Amino acid sequence: MAHLIPSSTVTRTAFALQTTPQVNEPELIARVLAGDRLAGRELYNAHAPRVFRLAYRLTGDAELAREFTQDTFVRAFQRLADFRGDAAFSTWIHRITITVVANAMRKVRRLRERETDLADLDALHPVHSSARRLDPDLRERLAKAIDALPEIYRITLIMHDMEGYTHTEIADVLGVAEGTCKSRLSAARAQLRAALADFAKEYES
Q: 13 is in which domain, residue-wise?
């Protein structure tokens, strides 16, 4: 399954204006386990866009996000027999995405500085609630402040404020209580406010 989908397909799929198709996942999973590559492609296409977006938000690098999306699905297909359906397949594969990205980025950060596309960080709720665009200095400071957050806070902030996951979804993916997610998000926002204190007028809520 390592070469199930060309890497270039991930980006095109992720940014296409399309609705996720309705699929019978238990049937698809059974077919994949039986060796049906077309079923594997269909399962991939149903979930790759959001996996890519999550990986991209966590890395800030499209090339790494494509690589980690592939790695996520390789690992998922290798472990598919272990999927028991206790949680949604999307929850299960997003857990794998978080693990793949977190492990890989620890290595990447030791080798190079992450380049982050902040073109749409204006929508980040706790930092910028007005319609005005963030100035370049604040963008740079915000990127560094987000990177400096402890991993559990950074992941929660990105998933909730930037990708729109609900607290229930985040709790399921990370395997923690909803209250824990809310506490982590509150702590992350507080740390961002403290880090950007001198830009207070730019992110007053």
A: 7-111
Look at the chain and report how many structural domains it folds into. Answer: 2
Q: Per-residue DSSP letters for 125-144?
A: TTT--SSSPPPHHHHHHHHH
Judge whether 59 and 82 are in contact, CB under 8 Å.
Answer: no
pTM for this entry: 0.67
- Least Cα distance to 47 among 103, 8, 3, 96 occurs for 96
Q: Verify that 81 and 132 share a domain, yes or no.
A: no
111-170: pLDDT as tens digits: 444 444 444 444 444 444 443 455 677 777 888 888 889 989 999 999 998 888 999 999
How far apart, in Å, are the Cα atoms of 93 and each of 69, 146, 147? 10, 24, 24
